[in-house]
Write a structure and sequence with these properties.
Blueprint lengths: L1 H6 L3 H4 L3 H24 L3 H16 L3 H16 L3 E7 L3 E7 L9 E3 L10 E3 L2 E7 L16 E7 L7 H79 L4 H43 L2 H6 L6 E5 H12 L1 H6 L3 E4 L9 E5 H18 L3 E2 L5 E2 L1 E9 L9 E9 L30 H11 L3 E7 L2 E9 L9
Parallel strand pairs: 8-12
Antiparallel strand pairs: 1-2, 1-6, 2-3, 4-5, 5-6, 7-9, 10-11, 12-13, 13-15, 14-15
Helix pairs in contact: 4-5, 4-6, 5-6, 6-7, 7-9, 7-11, 9-11, 11-12
């Protein structure tokens, strides 16, 4: 029954993806080319055996010092050749790392300026200098920038009897050394990097997250002091009402002073509220991005819970950026798409809040004047959410959350790249930015199983993302 089922499966289900087929075809061709190359090399059995043993022992002894020693031991054991190994160092030099003949006197450094052409072997004064080249795709991760891809040099101390065929073999051997050593250097740097990150996580918890918690206490104390001003004003008003005498001028001055007290209280409280809103959002973002689990896993780790779209995501960010919209003369209002009742999505509250904050921040930054349907020139932003019809195969509906900003639409040629890391559209000139914001939006939304989108509208641009709504039975956590 199963066999019959498999045989009747559509052909498309049995066909490998085109990119995989192309990769297999290209690699198969390279295998045949390498077979042809090695036929031409005509390496001896001893040469081939030495290369195989180098690979075996390079896996067995993976330390950087082990590879340095192994690189000079193989030519000595198999071919009785004393070699010295130099690796790239700062100040345009190659530093001595290991020598087969430990008793001989070898220079500690080679100056790269002494080698006009680093791309090929060089014979000089009875010695053969063979460059060790690294993996071109990984050169940028090295601590020192190499010249001509050269990360080191293996020097054959007595080279007069080395034939052209032998030199070719040793050149191929040097290439193998290069890839092994390069990989080991990168691995060592990655290990150091991970150790640093682990230490950094401890530092973040001790020096950032914990002190940040105290700010909430400080803000509460500041709020209480501001409230004292209101209490003083109320007491002052009661006191002056109970006083007798002084005439109308005295009463008028007291009322003026009371109004000034009230104004000072309202201004201070308004400033306090704005600062506290920014503190809350900054704290949320800090604690979300600097979660220990992100560093331990090497990726964003989601902490999912039902989150109300309007109440918990849209409203706080609009309040956070309200003054920026006012400073830039941007009107902001709900959009024409269906908003309706608030809806819960399953999301990591901190990360999704930052996603929406990125869209709102971009809208405030890039909104421009347009002439609306009524002939008025205005600069405006609209926002909203819309419950989308549930599609076949979806276990629950999705909600689309969007931000519209007025201005020229983005060129069609740029649309496919809007969410790429580092890409900035032609409309971004004159505004500060790194091109990371929309890339972050795309990555976080994808982790939630959602999609991002862009639409050109007659008066501007809409950026949006869709996420599944929370299942009714999923409890709040």
């Amino acid at each position: 029954m199963n066999a019959s089922s498999n045989e009747s499966a559509p052909a498309a289900e049995k066909t490998a993806p085109a990119d995989l087929r192309n990769k297999i075809s290209a690699l198969t061709l390279r295998v045949h080319e390498k077979i042809s190359d090695y036929d031409k090399y005509q390496f001896s059995k001893q040469q081939s055996r030495s290369m195989n043993i180098f690979f075996d022992l390079a896996q067995e002894f993976g330390g950087e010092d082990d590879l340095w020693a192994l690189s000079v031991i193989i030519p000595k054991v198999f071919f009785d050749k004393n070699t010295t190994l130099y690796m790239l160092a700062p100040e345009n030099r190659l530093e001595l790392k290991c020598a087969a003949d430990l008793e001989a006197d070898h220079p500690n450094y080679l100056n790269l300026d002494d080698f006009e052409d680093m791309s090929r072997p060089l014979r000089r004064e009875g010695r053969l200098f063979i460059p060790i080249k690294g993996n071109r795709e990984l050169l940028e991760f090295l601590p020192v920038t190499p010249k001509d891809d050269v990360i080191g040099m293996i020097v054959f101390e007595q080279a007069d009897d080395i034939s052209r065929q032998d030199a070719l073999f040793f050149e191929k051997y040097a290439n193998r050394i290069g890839y092994r050593l390069h990989g080991r250097i990168i691995s060592e740097k990655n290990r150091e990097h991970l150790e640093f990150i682990q230490t950094l996580v401890e530092d973040i918890g001790h020096n950032v997250i914990v002190p940040n918690m105290y700010f909430k206490l400080y803000y509460r104390r500041l709020e209480s002091k501001i409230q004292v001003l209101r209490d003083i004003g109320d007491q002052f008003s009661t006191f002056t009402d109970n006083c007798t005498g002084g005439g109308g001028e005295h009463t008028s001055q007291c009322r003026l002073l009371k109004r000034e007290m009230d104004y000072a209280f309202e201004a201070l409280m308004d400033q306090y509220s704005e600062i506290y809103r920014h503190y809350e959002q900054t704290s949320l973002f800090l604690e979300t991005l600097l979660r220990r689990s992100h560093f331990e896993e090497g990726r964003y780790v989601l902490e999912m819970r039902p989150v109300p779209v309007f109440e918990s995501i849209i409203t706080p960010q609009l309040e956070r950026y309200r003054h920026r919209f006012e400073d830039r003369g941007v009107d902001i209002a709900p959009g024409p798409e269906k908003n309706g009742e608030d809806v819960n999505i399953m999301a990591d509250f901190g990360l999704i809040s930052q996603v929406f904050a990125n869209l709102v921040s971009n809208a405030a930054k890039y909104a421009q004047d347009v002439q609306d349907q009524n002939g008025r020139t205005r600069k405006f932003v609209e926002y909203g959410w819309e419950l989308l019809p549930q599609k076949s195969g979806e276990d629950r509906p999705r909600v689309k959350i969007y931000v519209f900003s007025s201005g020229p639409t983005i060129a069609d040629t740029e649309n496919p790249r809007l969410f790429e890391e580092g890409f900035r559209g032609s409309n971004a000139s004159g505004e500060y930015g790194t091109g990371h914001g929309l890339s972050f939006v795309r990555e976080v939304v994808a982790l939630h199983g959602g999609t991002v989108g862009y639409e050109a509208r007659p008066l501007g641009n809409i950026f949006s993302f869709t996420l599944p709504v929370a299942k009714p039975q999923e409890p709040d956590v």
